Amino acid sequence: MAFVALTGLDVVYNAVHRAIWDAFCANRRADRVPISFKVLPGDHEYPKCRTKRTSYEWYIPKGILKTGWMNKHLNLVPALVVLFYELDWDDPVWKEKQSECATKVEIVRTSLQGRNTKVAVVLIQKKTPLPPGEDLVASERAAALCNACDLSGKSLFVLPHTDHLVGYIIRLENAFYEHAQTYYYTEIRRVKSHKEFLNKTTHQLLFVRHQFKIAFFSELKQDTQNALKYYRTAYSLVHELRAHETNMLEIKTMAGFINYKICRLCFQHNTPLDAIAQFRKHIDLCKKKIGSAELAFEHAAWMSKQFQSFGELFDEAIKLGLTAIQTQNPGFYYQQAACYSQERKQLAQQLCQVGASYPSPDPVETQSGALDFYGQRSWRQGHQSIDPPDAEKEKTAILALQIKEGDVPHSELIIALLSNAVAQFKKYKCPRMKSHLSVITLLL
């Protein structure tokens, strides 16, 4: 969904403002444009815009995708900031109000700190406006206000607070959506412009990152065909990365996430066979990427998660109208997820030392409590070379992960997945599979 920030609304103490906010939020049916709204103060500080690189010549990336990047564009950096301001065309102190409105717009622009976010103004008015061209004062003052605020005519709107508020709000939303589309288009072009500076030797991670970002912005723009195309490219590029023990988890984490996006879009496009084919390819490419032998249970857990997530996507698609059959339904994916969870349990029993003391200080803790990049080890973030930088720290961290794995309630996870599989086989009238899994569940 496109993220649009609304400022200038006092939704606590001003009844008119509250009614406007409620009209944006209430009854968001499927036929309304996909926008996520948030009310923010006019001087709200948005995330700082990093200085743009003029060269990548000496730049070595530390990872594929930052953990905060998606949340930043979903919830922190808006495509559009809309300033609401109460002002009628015949206001007796028009000049002062115009000046105040322009100042508020400037505060918003300053707080955006050089981002490409669009800015628009909505004038809340008491009267219903006359048809376009009939109110000469309104036309003159609208032009003057646009000039004072450095806005185009397409970024100034009027919202009369009348009985037809919801109708006006829906028209506003559609206009906001157009502005958001333009913003995401600009962001896509900005990311694409970096390509000419990259080389395949040192910037392999950036090729993946940029294709992912273009796909993600395309999704926010509701251009799902292009999103699918760029996610597919990103997926291929992930598997072109040179895999070794220190980066295996990062590669699998990104591959798993991009695969999820591809499968979800295939189901959305009503092409379930493409989703199934993509998932099978994903499993074939990743099943041998085990990584550290001492942490083999992590790979089994990851494989289980892949099957479980695909089962959930398949189930969600069925609820939205897709037809499943006896031989191809979510139950088979939940069953396979349970098998990998059983393998995880067995590997944990073999690899995890019973009674070992947890190391102090905690080697897997980070200062912020979060990772910088998806799929990296907390004790060597940003490290991309083949050998771990500190062999002793590596050993201690592996011990910590083994001890943590020993506390995982494996049997509960297996039973939950088997129960999901049984429910699906019951639904699709597969009595033999249902009975077989029910017996296994009882034996656990």
Protein architecture, described:
This is Trafficking protein particle complex subunit 11 domain-containing protein. InterPro entries: TPC11 (IPR021773). This protein has 444 residues and is α/β, with parallel strands linked by helices. Helices cover 54% and strands 7% of the residues. The chain is built from 14 helices and five strands. Strands 2-1-3-4-5 form a five-stranded parallel β-sheet, sandwiched between helices. Strand 4, helix 4 and strand 5 form a beta-alpha-beta unit. 34% of the residues are buried. The model has no long low-confidence stretch (mean pLDDT 90).
Write down the overall mean pLDDT.
90
Strand content: 5-15%
How far apart, in Å, are the first and last alpha carbons?
43 Å
Number of strands: 5
Structural class: alpha/beta
What string gives the helices and strands in order?
A: EHEHEHEHEHHHHHHHHHH
Described by the principal axes of the CA atoms, the overall outline is globular
Radius of gyration: 27 Å
Contiguous uncertain segments of 5+ residues: none
Tell me about the largest β-sheet.
Answer: 5 strands, parallel
Q: In order across it, which strands form the biggest sheet?
A: 2-1-3-4-5
Oligomeric nature of the chains = single chain
Sequence-ordered SSE layout with sheet pairings:
Layout: E1 2-7, H1 15-25, E2 35-39, H2 69-76, E3 80-86, H3 94-112, E4 118-125, H4 136-149, E5 156-160, H5 165-192, H6 204-220, H7 224-238, H8 248-268, H9 272-286, H10 296-319, H11 330-351, H12 391-406, H13 410-427, H14 431-443
Parallel strand pairs: 1-2, 1-3, 3-4, 4-5
